[in-house]
Design brief:
By secondary structure, the protein is of the alpha/beta class. Helices cover 41% and strands 21% of the residues. It is built from six helices and eight strands; from the N terminus they run βααββαββααββαβ. It has helices spanning 6-22, 28-53, 82-93, 112-126, 153-157, 186-197, and strands spanning 4-5, 63-69, 72-79, 100-103, 106-107, 168-173, 176-183, 204-211. Strands 1, 2, 3, 4 and 5 form a five-stranded mixed beta sheet that branches. Strands 6-7-8 form a three-stranded mixed beta sheet. The termini are close together.
């Protein structure tokens, strides 16, 4: 997932403005303090990331992003269950140094039609022979991201649902499907898009996968 870190940019900008205005030169102690602050900010960002990725009900049908500003953390994205929105906020509040969490995560509307698209798209993308490298941990034990997906027994039995962090996230809203996450190559991005477009009932597909 892509995470933004605003605090470091703010800190750097403030430093530039301060030097330009006063012509000051940082003493060594000040420079050490700045390095420590940046290090603490990087650690805080990594702690937030780990806590979000560690949420057991955070699955391929959800997408959460965050950015930090000193002791404030902003949460955004889209999830299928209200409980995940609450769990994300609770998890981030446990990170040392975080005092305030602004939770702007959107809970997607309940839609059996969208659920059918999610399940079919998951099977089509992660079940493709060229996409097995993106299966989380190579495991086949499934922990349903939402109770309403637990009826997809055909997918569970064939090992097409997997637990753990997903590289490719499938966000569906009113029949419109968006692919988010990271893949290794343009070819894999194209395969994911083609597989998504093959699903009956999909009105549009937006491919926002990053290639790294």
């Amino acid at each position: 997932m892509k995470f933004l870190n605003k605090a470091t940019r703010y800190l750097s900008l403030s430093l530039i403005l301060m030097l330009a205005a006063g012509g000051a030169v940082l003493a060594q102690d000040d420079a050490d303090t700045m390095d420590e602050m940046k290090s603490m900010d990087a650690k805080q960002t990594e702690d937030v990331r780990k806590r979000l990725n560690g949420l057991t009900n955070y699955g391929a049908f959800d997408w959460i992003v965050f950015w930090t500003d000193d002791d404030l953390v902003y949460l955004s994205g889209k999830v299928v269950e209200p409980s995940l929105k609450k769990a994300a906020e609770a998890a981030v509040k446990k990170v040392e140094g975080v005092k305030t969490v602004e939770n702007e995560i959107q809970v997607l509307p309940v839609s059996p039609a969208d659920d059918r698209i999610r399940i079919a798209a998951y099977a089509a993308i992660y079940g493709h022979s060229a996409m097995t490298r993106y299966v989380p941990g190579g495991g086949t034990n499934f922990v349903a991201p939402s109770p309403r997906f637990r009826d997809a027994t055909n997918l569970v039995q064939t090992g097409q649902f997997h637990e753990g962090p997903h590289a490719i996230h499938i966000i569906v809203e009113h029949g419109n499907l968006t692919l988010l996450g990271i893949v290794d190559s343009r070819l894999h991005s194209q395969i994911a898009e083609v597989q998504a477009k093959s699903i009956n009932g999909v009105f549009s597909v937006t491919n926002s996968l990053r290639i790294e």
